[in-house]
Amino acid sequence: MSVRLSHPERILVIKHGAFGDLIQSEGALHDIRDHHPGAEIVALTTPAYRSIFERCPWVDRVLIDRRESRWRLDRMAVLRARLRAEAVDRIYDLQNSARTGAYRDWIFRGLPWSGEPQRRDWLFRLIPPELPSLERFTIQLRKAGVPVRHTERPDVSWMADDVSSLLTEAGVEGPFITLIPGASAKHPGKRWPYYPALAAALRDHGYRVVIAPGPDEAGLAKTIPAIDLTREHGRLSWFELAGVFRRSAFVVGNDTGPSHLAAHSGAAGLALFGPHFRPEQASIHREQFDAIAVSDLSDLKPAEVLHRVLERLNETRKTRATRDA
Q1: Average pLDDT, integer, range 40-52
Q2: Among 133, 175, 138, 176, which residue's Cα sits nearest to residue 23?
Q3: Within this chain, do residues 173 and 50 fall inside the same structural domain, yes or no?
Q4: Do residues 240 and 166 make contact, with C-beta atoms less than 8 angstroms apart?
Q5: 83 and 104 co-located in one domain
Q6: Where would I find the H helices in 212-295?
Q7: How many domains does the chain fold into?
Q8: By CB distance 3.0 to 4.6 Å, which of 122, 143, 150, 238 could disulfide with 27?
Q9: Which of 135, 155, 175 is the last residue of a domain?
Q10: What pLDDT is attached to residue 324?
Q11: Nearest-5° angle of CA 175, CA 261, CA 54?
Q12: How high is the pLDDT of residue 2?
């Protein structure tokens, strides 16, 4: 590794993704920053999430890992040389994958390392993989001697753009509810099938309903009676989407990354979980953000979701009235 004669401590934090997991790691990044106030914090991530880390207030610099095939030894050698040239002093592995375990053994051997990469002997791991995401981060950082103050309370409100002009352009005035009807194309079973009925019912109750579909959700969006924010504006960035969530009276979404963005940006909302994952394990519950878990999303009827949404909206109004009194 290269040698720097005099330098502040340089910390490498590895977080490749995915989007929801990255959002959940925000509090851990905040605690790492607080624990190393004079250090340079360098994030190693994938191209898709570069802009998020560049805006993150707890990160000084971003490195990109394209996660080339580990069988391409020539490209892995280039990555190894590039990362060793950084002369980092310590690594926090917030990805904890088999790939990052290989990095520890092949690139950073001998350096202080916080993390527990996935291995076949997972039954003997000190941090059980079935624990909730934020609890696993908490255990990891405490084992590394990092005081935990923010890890279990991620706050990505810094991601939110001012979307006033975007909403005005789309004709959105007054209280509105945002729906997140999509999910990863790899997991169609995570999509609750009754968003059209929910949107119609919410409109009957006097709410404007908006959606901001992703690139593979155009067909789905056409079935929902809602204002499509992408129709004139084009696809929203993560930062614009966070801004929309922050301005929403309520958000309803599936078990998907944008729902985590809404939950951890301070929006009030409700996530709908099927059998793939438990909301407790996903750590999506917040004071203002709840979840419904069912064994089959097709059995979760629109009337039940509507009741929960209206109930939470009424609770929110009462809380604000009490606070403002």
Answers
A1: 98
A2: 133
A3: no
A4: yes
A5: yes
A6: 218-221, 230-233, 238-247, 257-264, 279-282
A7: 2
A8: 150
A9: 155
A10: 62
A11: 120
A12: 44
- What's the CA gap between 68 and 325, in Å, rounded? 58
Q: CB of 313 within 8 A of CB of 249?
A: yes
Residue 221's CATH number = 3.40.50.2000
Residue 5 lies in a domain: no
Q: Which pair of structure tokens corresponds to residue 39?
A: 């250090």
Q: Structure tokens of 260?
A: 């985590």
Do 316 and 168 fall within a single domain?
yes
As a whole number, mean pLDDT of residues 258-274 equals 97
Angle of helix 26-35 relative to helix 133-143, nearest 10 degrees?
20
- With left for phi above 0 and alpha for psi between -120 and 50, is residue 287 left, alpha or beta? alpha
Number of Cβ within a 10 Å radius of residue 39: 18
The candidate with the shortest Cα–Cα distance to 166, out of 261, 264, 237, is 237
Mean pLDDT of the chain, nearest integer: 92
> Is residue 212 within 8 Å of residue 230, measured between CB atoms?
yes
- Sequence letter at residue 90: R
In this structure, the answer to whether residues 136 and 187 fall within a common structural domain is no
What is the structure's pLDDT at 4?
Answer: 47
Domain range for 120:
10-155
For residue 1, pLDDT beyond 50:
no
Gap between the Cα atoms of 142 and 125, Å rounded? 16
pLDDT digit string (tens) for 191-219?
A: 999 999 999 999 999 999 999 998 888 88
Residues 127 and 192 in one domain: no
- pLDDT for the residue 116: 82
Percent of the chain whose predicted confidence (pLDDT) is above 90: 80
Q: What number is the average pLDDT over the span 263-283?
A: 93
Nearest Cα neighbor of 180 from 242, 118, 138 is 242
Beta bridge partners of 176: 208
**Exposed, middle or buried, 31 (CB in 10 Å: 0-12/13-18/19+)?**
buried
pTM: 0.92
